[in-house]
Design a protein that fits this description.
about 200 residues; alpha+beta; Nuclear Transport Factor 2, Chain: A; 5 helices; 4 strands; disordered N terminus; DUF3828 domain-containing protein
Amino acid sequence: MTRLPRFASAPLHARRRTRLIAGACSLTAALALGGCNNFSGEEQRQADVIGSFYRIHIKNNAPGLPSAEELKQYQPLVSRALYTLLTQAEAADARYHAVAGTQAPPIVEGDLFTSLYEGATSFSVKSCDTDDVRSSCQVSFQYKKDGAQEAWNDKILLVREDDQWRIDDIEFIGNDQSSQREYLTDTLTDAIKEAE
């Protein structure tokens, strides 16, 4: 853990003010609305979609493919193409287990929506690069649990549909620890093929 230097020459009220600002930034980051970044209106809407998606995902804390009930929660936040791929993968997994039995491993193991197999315990939207209909947002993730700690970035790709931003794909950047293919859509497509 990196320790920040303490500056004895700084007045006590200045150090307290700095701690208050840092605390406000930490609280905002915990709410996953982009830390202390000053997003434009469009970037804030994108950060809100990403924040809603990952709050649901972290709360559900379910590895592998989302269940039909979880898919309903994600539907307003993902593109039609990604939703179709997710429902096809969930149906392929159900068909596979109907034949192979419930003891067979799932067709997708580990966390589906982040680079780390164990998933994330927190996240923060760092920046978004946007044109008229597409956007690419850098998201910082952390996993802290049972003494283990990891930090990494993934890239969330959004598309504008029906005048709303929706998640269209995820590029798994990670720190060479990704349990997935390079893109979420590749992982889902491969899982559907393997289940046939």
